[in-house]
Design a protein that fits this description.
The chain is of the alpha/beta class. The protein has 13 helices and 24 strands. The strands form 6 sheets. Strands 1, 2, 3, 4, 5, 6 and 19 form a 7-stranded mixed β-sheet that branches. It has a 5-stranded parallel β-sheet with strand order 8-15-9-10-11. α3 (45-62) runs parallel beside α6 (175-186). The chain is globular and about 65 Å long.
Length: 442
């Protein structure tokens, strides 16, 4: 049987592309070797945020007295926490599977391999189609540290058999490491974060990582930056060189490596079939590889932003191109979020990048301390910052409760190249965290 579209990988990019192709009458087949939902649903975004939500509830229960609510002997049942996490994941997976069935997408469970520009092999069968979309996602990137086999990854943290330990060392202070650090600290785990760069969240503006370090230290999380890890011991010890060049060793009950993820493209093609790769699959700005009939989306693409919503938008855009239509989504404006407490979110160009390029800019800033809803929620000191060039909004950053929900408004402002006066004209509700955006632009 021949298909219009064959998709490898059932994560956010893959199942979104499959659903759109099916809705538009394309005969579509989706290959997934594990579970529908990919990393995001099964080992990433969704289960991690479920753990974070439980951590927030526990923290609020312990701090209830501040709000006049007394909850004696609040405690964590980690098995129940994991049960709820698994319920959320399974419910969402069932919904995705139902949508694929509704859109008449054929789903094959098995390891798929490209053997020709229009052929895929899976479970001993050969499938043919006009177009192939690679959405094979990513896997944890493990640096060449001696003894790394004694550490776990973020995938392991979210497995059903993982148990909370009294202490953990997290190697990597990026988004994944910081989210896990904050959640586990709320659960009562002693947390140490070791980061090679000179600050947490090194891919974001300096001010964001510096502010998060301040929050972490206030919560009792030990933060060690400018540190290069050289060895992990079988006894869960970590040896590193500090910023002064001195060798140090620290120890915990568990060591987690959270140093990012890399494209999952091993054995994707049959030997002898050439698909250009580097640190991922090479493609043009449209996702087309060196083979005209083959596209790549999401984390498997070289140089791509590894976010689920990026993969989803790219998946829909590729299907648009296959259908001969204009693309649905502008990929030039991508919001991102960090689900710590408080949340951190950003979109567009940051101050660090503008300074580096020598571009003149202005900022408008409003602090959470002057916002009624932030005070009501007992938020840490944060802000809304809007960055403009010649009065046009080019970027925005938020450290505040619900920042990941609010950043969508600034994404619209950046994408539409709005001026400050245009955003200021929009009346915002009171009392809300969102009115900080209004107060900033006014």
């Amino acid at each position: 049987m021949r298909y219009d579209v064959m998709i490898i990988g059932g994560g956010p990019g893959g199942y979104t592309a499959a659903n759109k192709a099916g809705r538009n009458g394309l005969k579509t087949i989706l290959f997934e070797k594990d579970r529908i939902g990919g990393t995001c649903l099964n080992r990433g975004c969704i289960p991690m945020k479920a753990l974070i939500q439980s951590a927030h509830v526990y923290k609020d229960a312990k701090q209830g007295e501040l709000f006049g609510v007394f909850s004696e002997n609040a405690s964590i049942d980690y098995e129940k926490v994991k049960e709820r996490k698994n319920f959320v994941v399974s419910s969402l997976r069932a919904g995705i599977e139902k949508s694929l069935k509704t859109n008449k997408v054929e789903v094959v469970n098995g390891f798929a391999q490209i053997i020709d520009k229009e052929k895929i092999s899976c479970n001993g069968e050969i499938y043919e189609g006009d177009h192939i979309i690679i959405a094979s996602g990513s896997i944890p990137a493990l640096p060449p540290i001696e003894g790394r086999e004694y550490a776990i990854t973020s995938d392991d943290i979210l497995e059903a058999d993982h148990q909370l330990k009294d202490s953990i060392i997290i190697i990597g202070g990026g988004v994944i490491g910081c989210e896990i650090a904050d959640a586990f600290n709320s659960f009562g785990v002693k947390v140490t974060v070791i980061e090679m760069a000179d600050r947490l969240l090194p891919t974001l503006d300096r001010e964001l990582g510096t502010r998060l370090s301040m929050f972490f230290k206030k919560k009792g999380i030990e933060v060690i930056c400018s540190a290069a890890v050289s060895r992990i011991g079988e006894d869960q010890s970590v040896t590193y060189t500090d910023k002064k060049g001195c060798e140090q060793t620290t120890k915990a009950d568990e060591v987690l490596i959270a140093t990012g993820r890399r494209a999952n493209i091993g054995s994707l093609t049959d030997e002898g079939f050439f698909l250009e790769t580097g640190r991922g699959i090479v493609s043009d700005e449209n996702g087309r590889t060196n083979i005209d009939s083959i596209f790549v989306i999401g984390d498997a693409m070289q140089g791509n932003i590894q976010l689920a919503h990026v993969a989803e938008a790219q998946g829909e855009n590729v299907v648009d191109r296959i259908l001969g239509k204009d693309v649905s989504h502008d990929m030039g404006t991508i919001p991102s979020g960090v689900y710590t407490d408080p949340e951190i979110a950003g979109v567009g160009v940051g101050e660090d990048e503008l300074k580096e390029k020598g571009i003149g800019y202005q900022t408008k800033k409003f602090l959470t301390g002057a916002n009624g809803k932030s005070l009501i929620e007992n938020s840490e000191s944060g802000f809304v910052k809007i960055i403009t060039v010649d009065d046009v909004i080019v970027g925005g950053q938020i450290i505040a409760p619900h920042a990941t929900e609010l950043i969508g408004e600034l994404a619209v402002a950046v994408q539409k190249k709005m001026r400050l006066c245009e955003l200021a004209q929009v009346v915002h509700p009171h009392p809300t965290i969102a009115e900080m955006i209004w107060d900033a632009v006014k």
